[in-house]
Write a structure and sequence with these properties.
Elements: E1 6-8, E2 15-19, E3 22-26, E4 30-34, H1 40-52, E5 55-59, H2 62-72, E6 76-80, H3 89-97, E7 106-111, H4 124-129, E8 133-136, H5 141-174, E9 180-182, E10 188-191, E11 198-202, E12 205-209, H6 231-244, H7 250-263, H8 267-280, H9 297-306, H10 343-349, H11 359-365, H12 370-381, H13 384-388, H14 392-404, H15 415-429, H16 432-437, H17 440-452, H18 462-468, H19 471-475, H20 481-496, H21 508-524, H22 530-549, H23 564-579, H24 587-611, H25 627-650, H26 653-671
Parallel strand pairs: 4-5, 4-6, 6-7, 7-8
Antiparallel strand pairs: 1-5, 2-3, 9-10, 11-12
Helix pairs in contact: 1-5, 7-8, 12-14, 12-15, 15-17, 15-23, 17-21, 17-23, 20-21, 21-23, 22-23, 22-25, 25-26
GO molecular function: 3',5'-cyclic-AMP phosphodiesterase activity; metal ion binding
Pfam family, one: PDEase_I
EC number: 3.1.4.-
Length: about 675
């Protein structure tokens, strides 16, 4: 060997190294001995390598040592540092450290034993030269063997894991397809998820934090100079200008009309109109006012939990959600196209246009990845790829990224719920009156909005996040916290990488219109505006449509379903109904969903108690809660009126029958004082 004066190929075998659930095969350890002369110490390390099963080379000169290392990339190098007349050991170490391969190499210095009372030498000069360890001269084979074995199981093993991780992330960075690394049980450990912002990598945990720009200190205008007009000097001219404005908001016109009507009205009418004006001047025009809390605690708690911003917060409590994208996904190969899905899944999807479609069967057969498969089928049926001018490969990658950012650990708000909402949205889009009211851009926006509407949901309500002072609540000023996060993250994930950017081929105007429609629909799922959306739909769609069908002489405008304002109301109502359609599903599906949402609320109550936070829905205590009562309250307060209005527009007799049957199921259980999902005899 021209590099080394002595080389050996000893009995070697590959070793298996585990990194969490990953198994990696490590090639036999290679050791380079750099000794100017053969002696008992070099022989000790040689035979120790033989015993450990390592490959070993010996170099006599610095030049041959460097050449040999660059050829072999040894994991361990042992340099004779006992005497300097043959070569400078520290200079040899520095020359090796100057090469790229040495980044993962452990270099050991063999030093002479301290003589007599001589003070122990410091290791700092060795460390500064690039050595990792110091070995006191000892030619005993067992001593040399123990030293090498400790290095292998310590620094060498750690360096090997680090190299493996670097390789993984390099592959992820350069790949053209989405990649998943799984455990033996096919649980995804690492995947390319195209996160935006800072990506902090821990051992198989991705923690996502947004990078915020530093805020700018904005000084008040009046403080910039002594010559600035004072507030007092500016106030009255401003007020005069306001009163002289000719711009009137619709509510202002209504108030002016009522004021004018009062002038010539009897006292009783004028008093009634005063009451009307008082109501109109409130900010919450569409939210009904509840009675006392004692009347119906289930309804009151649902309203408190779903329709408030959680301002009853405690000081000093901090709750930060950590983005963890370990999804319990399966070993199923991702389909390249809709025609590539496994037969068992394809057979299930044959029935996806039916309202009776069982999303839980799809969840089971796809191992909790229903969104990708249902998404491919539904988007294909509605020609989404053709509309967006994107390939099915891009769509598949996008669906995979979105599904990976749903939390499979959530009992309810996971990718199965997203798939269920997508299914309901597609079903509604197939109804004749809905189809005739919307154009293809609306349809595409609705399907995308349904897919992303709860992405990265933490399994806690907005009230919880606000009470806990979470990062998201602070970021979004306690207003529509989750809904704002879902839309923002969905677009971040989409545009971050061209491989999953389904919008990359559409022009700017189409993109902006589509983006606005998606944002509007996802924000409409926030429950604080529930009654506003329902009442606007009733007044702008249902009532004119009813008057039109009755041939009334009312001077109301015709239905005008295709007016942009009405199309917006229809899309909002559609996704709202799709989002909470569980009580309108067949009974078995309705019961399963009721169990899942109850479990998620129970978990929130448990956590609120652990953290000393306000309990926003006290009835959802797993030890005392009546699930039938909670479902009855939810249907009475939120579902019945909304689906009556939606049914009047879209004509959904099957759904309304399921709703009646399911309500009867919960009432029967409640009458029998049963607090569970089913009677014990039915379980």
């Amino acid at each position: 060997n021209k590099h080394c004066s002595r080389a050996g190929v000893l009995q070697v075998s590959s070793a298996e190294v585990r990194i969490g659930p990953m198994r990696l095969t490590q090639d036999p350890i290679q050791v380079l001995l750099i000794f100017a002369k053969e002696d008992s110490q070099s022989d000790g390390f040689w035979w120790a390598c033989d015993r450990a099963g390592y490959r070993c080379n010996i170099a006599r000169t610095p030049e041959s040592a460097l050449e040999c290392f660059l050829d072999k990339h040894h994991e361990i190098i042992v340099i004779d540092h006992r005497q300097t007349r043959n070569f400078d050991a520290e200079a040899v170490c520095r020359s090796i450290r100057a090469t790229n391969p040495s980044e993962h190499t452990v270099i050991l210095a063999v030093v002479s034993q301290a003589l007599g009372d001589r003070e122990e030498a410091s290791v700092l000069p060795l460390l500064h030269a690039g050595f990792n360890r110091r070995f006191m001269e000892n030619s005993n084979i067992i001593a040399c063997y123990n030293e090498l074995i400790q290095i292998e199981h310590g620094e060498v093993r750690s360096q090997f894991k680090l190299r493996a991780c670097n390789s993984v992330f390099t592959a992820l960075d350069h790949c053209h397809e989405a990649i998943e690394i799984t455990s033996d049980d096919h649980v995804i450990q690492v995947g390319r998820h195209f996160l935006s912002g800072d990506l902090k990598i821990e051992p198989f945990k991705f923690e996502y934090k947004n990078r915020r720009k530093e805020s700018i200190d904005v000084k008040s205008i009046s403080s910039r100079g002594s010559d600035a007009p004072s507030l007092q000097n500016r106030r009255y001219p401003s007020m005069a200008r306001i009163h002289s404005m000719t711009i009137e908001a619709p509510i202002t016109k209504v108030i002016n009309i009522i004021n004018a009507a009062q002038e010539n009205s009897p006292v009783t009418v004028a008093e009634a109109l005063d009451r009307v004006l008082e109501i109109l001047r409130t900010t919450e025009l569409y939210s009904p006012q509840l009675g006392t809390k004692d009347e119906d605690p289930h309804t009151s708690d649902l309203v408190g939990g779903l329709m408030t911003d959680g301002l009853r917060r405690l000081s000093g409590n901090e709750y930060v959600f950590t983005k963890n994208v370990h999804q319990s996904h399966s070993h199923l190969a991702m389909p390249i196209t809709i025609n590539d899905v496994p037969p068992c899944i394809a057979q299930l999807l044959d029935n996806e246009e039916s309202w009776e479609f069982n999303i839980f069967e799809l969840e089971a057969v796809t191992h909790k990845r229903p969104l990708v498969y249902l998404g491919l089928k539904v988007f294909s049926r509605f020609g989404v790829c053709e509309f967006l001018h994107c390939s099915e490969t891009t769509l598949r990658a996008w669906l995979q990224v979105i599904e990976a950012n749903y939390h499979s650990s959530n009992a309810y708000h996971n990718s199965t719920h997203a798939a269920d909402v997508l299914h309901a949205t597609a079903f509604f889009l197939g109804k004749e009156r809905v189809k005739g009211s919307l154009d293809q851009l609306d349809e595409v926006a609705a399907l995308i909005a349904a897919t992303v509407h709860d992405v990265d949901h933490p399994g806690r309500t907005n009230s919880f996040l606000c009470n806990a002072g979470s990062e998201l609540a602070v970021l979004y000023n306690d207003t529509a916290v989750l809904e704002s996060h879902h839309t923002a993250l969905a677009f971040q994930l989409t545009v971050k990488d061209s491989k999953c950017n389904i919008f990359k081929n559409i022009d700017r105007n189409h993109y902006r219109t589509l983006r606005q429609a998606i944002i509007d629909m996802v924000l409409a799922t926030e429950m604080t505006k529930h009654f506003e959306h329902v009442n606007k739909f009733v007044n702008s769609i249902n009532k004119p449509m009813a008057a039109e069908s009755e041939g009334s002489d009312c001077e109301c405008n015709p239905t005008g379903k295709n007016f942009p304002e009405n199309q917006i109301l229809i899309k909002r109502m559609m996704i709202k109904c799709a989002d909470v359609a569980n009580p309108c599903r067949p009974l078995d599906l309705c019961i399963e969903w009721a169990g899942r949402i109850s479990e998620e609320y129970f978990a929130q109550t448990d956590e609120e108690k652990r953290q000393g936070l306000p309990v926003v829905m006290p009835v959802f205590d797993r030890n005392t809660c009546s699930i039938p009562k909670s479902q009855i309250s939810f249907i009475d307060y939120f579902i019945t009126d909304m689906f009556d209005a939606w049914d009047a527009f879209a004509h959904l007799p099957a759904l309304m029958q399921h709703l009646a049957d399911n309500y009867k199921h919960w009432k029967t259980l409640d009458d029998l004082k049963c607090k569970s999902l089913r009677l014990p005899s039915d379980s």
